[in-house]
Amino acid sequence: MSGFVLDFGALVIPFLFKFLILFLYLVINDLSGFVVKFYHAP
């Protein structure tokens, strides 16, 4: 069972890490545009 968990973690953790990096990149990218729109909104 522990071997399965380790294998599962070895597969999932890098995927989650890449997803997190991409998510943070998109959030930061959108956030700068969102802040500009928010502050310039009527």
TrEMBL record:
The chain crosses the membrane at residues 6-28. Keywords: Membrane, Transmembrane, Transmembrane helix. This is Putative membrane protein. It comes from Helicobacter pylori SouthAfrica50.
